[in-house]
Amino acid sequence: MAGFNRITLIGRPMTDPESRSMNDGSVMSKFRLSVSRPQSGADLIDIVVWGKAAEICRDYLKKNNLVLVEGRIQNRSFDDQSGQRRWVTEVVANAVTLMDKATRSQPSTAGQPVEMAESAPTNLSEEPEPMSLDGARDKAEDADLINELPF
Amino acid sequence: MYNKVFLIGNLTRDPELRYTSAGIAVAHFALAVNRISRKGAGEGNDVDFINIVAWRRLAEICGEYLKKGKPVAIEGRLQIRTFDGRDGQKRTMAEVVADSMQMLGKREGGTAPGTATEAAPSVAEDSEEVPF
């Protein structure tokens, strides 16, 4: 039976993406995405991107940017230094969409006001502790929302 | 934030239904999800085995009706759990926490629920009884 395997995530990369060019010229980009849970805490999910979407990650995606990732769940095994077999689960993304307001370093896609660049949530706490991250993020998003109201 | 997974695959084993010390039902199983590859089936590693966990009423429904090999659709979210391995090292494990489950394929008896969700369990889908 043909399987179906789709995942959609919105989160923030823990670090800048790590990108590599392959021998055939294709680009691979990797990062770990922090996706907060409904109540508290967060899931740290490894993302792998290939091709054009990887170039976008390499060129524009930065730590803590809000990003939409669409792809599939994949299991992969490898042998670690001690020769033991390890399994990793990662999301292979086929589409990556930057959801922050456009800044000067990002492409200004249609309909996104560029003058909002300074209010983008860039100075988030770097602590991995999810609660404080959430708080800072919510405040930043609220501020954005208020700025967008036309009255 | 947003975390949604949709899977269709076959159970690799019968679900394992247990109860926590607080009496909450939890079911564990795994799905074999075939990859759609251009090369065609049978080449290389083209199946992903994805662990699923279901809670409460949904866990009981899964424990009762799901069997090894059965095709099933699962909707949920991807969760990464950390735990200490036998060698004392930190390990992470990914699993899909199911919100709803839909049995696919033919029904054996007349009583099995077609769909089930954690919020509204045992929604029977009696398509045979539709009078037109």
Radius of gyration of chain B: 16 Å
The main β sheet of chain B shows up as: 5 strands, mixed, barrel
Name the helicity range of chain B.
Answer: under 10%
Structural class of chain B: mainly beta
Mean pLDDT of chain B: 82
Mean pLDDT of chain A: 77
Count up the helices of chain A: 2
Give a nutshell description of this structure:
The complex is a heterodimer of chains A (151) and B (132). Chain A has helices at 51-60, 130-148; strands spanning 4-13, 18-21, 27-36, 42-50, 67-79, 85-98.
Account of the 3D structure:
The complex is a heterodimer of chains A (151) and B (132). Chain A is α+β, with helices and mostly antiparallel strands. Chain A contains two helices and six strands. Chain A has a five-stranded mixed β-barrel with strand order 1-3-4-6-5. The longest helix of chain A is centred in the last third of the chain and has 19 residues, at 130-148. Residues 108-141 of chain A have low confidence and may be disordered. Chain B has a single domain (5-117), classed as OB fold (Dihydrolipoamide Acetyltransferase, E2P). Chain B contains one helix and seven strands. In chain B, strands 1-3-4-6-5 form a five-stranded mixed beta barrel. The interface between A and B is medium-sized, with 24 and 28 residues. Strand 1 of chain A pairs antiparallel with strand 1 of chain B.
Please outline the helices and strands.
The complex is a heterodimer of chains A (151) and B (132).
Chain A: E1 4-13, E2 18-21, E3 27-36, E4 42-50, H1 51-60, E5 67-79, E6 85-98, H2 130-148
Parallel strand pairs in A: 4-6
Antiparallel strand pairs in A: 1-3, 1-5, 2-3, 3-4, 5-6
Chain B: E1 3-11, E2 16-19, E3 25-34, E4 47-55, H1 56-65, E5 71-84, E6 90-103, E7 115-117
Parallel strand pairs in B: 4-6
Antiparallel strand pairs in B: 1-3, 1-5, 2-3, 3-4, 5-6, 6-7
What distinguishing features does this structure have?
heterodimer, A: 151 residues, alpha+beta, 2 helices, 6 strands, globular, B: 132 residues, mainly beta, OB fold (Dihydrolipoamide Acetyltransferase, E2P), five-stranded mixed beta barrel
